[in-house]
Design a protein that fits this description.
A hairpin with a 5-residue loop joins strand 1 and strand 2. By secondary structure, this protein is mainly α. The two termini are about 20 Å apart. A two-stranded antiparallel ribbon has the order 1-2. It has one domain. The protein is globular, with a radius of gyration of 20 Å.
């Protein structure tokens, strides 16, 4: 893990900012994980270590007035650049992605489907020693992610406490590849209120959400770091299973089995079932756009493969 981070510390802040924008864009979409983007862009372990270092650095450096030491201990330039990219992406792309999901759902979901399929391959490659025992965490991850996607959405009162809890829950999921924080928000009925708070710049609600994110982030990052340290391959197998199970949610052709009324009075899908493109066309009388969907899936897959190849060249160049 340290070798990876040593290489990543040479990355320019502008590159980190762009990775943050990609993470922010992914986190907006229910079913797609920002943690997956962090993993395939090569900054996942650096992010975990930077967050894990914050509590200790707070008492060792910041409380004593050593601001520069605190900034260095938490990899401040990296965290600031990444967070700036995430926030800029969410603020600027929330409306666009919402519109794209409404107007071109098959193409957008196909893109993310290809992205996650390639991510499964990428994460699986990081396993150091393959063993039949790894099938247990792999299948457990698949089962858990699939179960999460079958949970019905609910509706809660968007109070300050709800925003706090939603932030803690969402960030814990967002940092795990394969688990979508925005989808969990959808399940507990806080996706629309959070997205509305972003669009309208509701400072109080967003402030509570961010505090919840901070609480969740500091509590889970250290745990994940320790898990990777002592059970590297098991954790990777589990995360790979998460991503495989999540593919059910991002399958482009879904049959809506039931609907619910959102807080804004709109009818939105409650439960959905993935179906074949031909079945979807028969059900809804529309062109399933199989060719364009395949193209968008290939674009998503190509991006991951390209990032993988670029990362290998960068690592080889650093060693030489």
């Amino acid at each position: 893990m340290s070798d990876v981070n040593a290489n990543n510390r040479t990355q320019h802040p502008a590159g980190i900012f762009l990775r943050g924008m990609a993470m922010g864009a992914a986190d907006i979409v229910p079913g797609v994980s920002g943690g997956t983007i962090a993993f395939i862009t090569g900054i996942y372990f650096r992010l975990l270590e930077a967050i894990s270092a914050a509590p200790v650095a707070f008492f060792r450096q910041l409380v004593r007035g050593d601001f520069l030491g605190f900034w260095r201990a938490i990899d401040g330039v990296f965290l600031f650049s990444l967070l700036a990219g995430i926030l800029a992406s969410i603020a600027s792309l929330a409306s666009l992605i919402t519109w794209l999901l409404d107007e071109h759902p098959i193409l957008i979901w196909s893109f993310f489907f290809g992205l996650i399929v390639a991510s499964v391959w990428h994460v699986g490659q990081q396993v150091k020693r393959y063993s039949p025992v790894l099938l247990i965490p792999l299948l457990s991850g698949v089962a858990f992610a699939w179960w999460v996607t079958t949970l019905p959405a609910s509706e809660v009162d968007p109070s300050a406490l709800a925003f706090l809890g939603a932030g803690a829950l969402a960030i814990c999921a967002m940092i795990l590849p394969g688990i979508s924080g925005s989808f969990l928000l959808l399940i507990i009925g806080m996706y629309a209120p959070v997205l509305s708070a972003i669009k309208t710049a509701a400072i109080t609600d967003l402030g509570m959400f961010m505090v919840g994110c901070l609480i969740g982030l500091l509590s889970v990052a250290r745990l994940i770091t320790l898990a990777f340290k002592y059970a590297h391959d098991t954790v990777l197998a589990l995360l790979t299973g998460f991503m495989i199970g999540a593919l059910v949610k991002v399958w482009p052709w879904q049959e809506t089995l039931s609907w619910r009324t959102s807080s804004s009075g709109e009818q939105v899908p409650l439960t959905q079932l993935p179906v074949a493109p031909e079945t979807w066309a028969t059900l809804y009388g529309q062109d399933p756009l199989v060719g364009m969907a395949a193209l968008m899936a290939c674009v998503g897959l190509t991006i991951v493969v390209g990032l993988e190849m670029a990362g290998r060249r960068r690592s080889a160049g650093t060693r030489n």
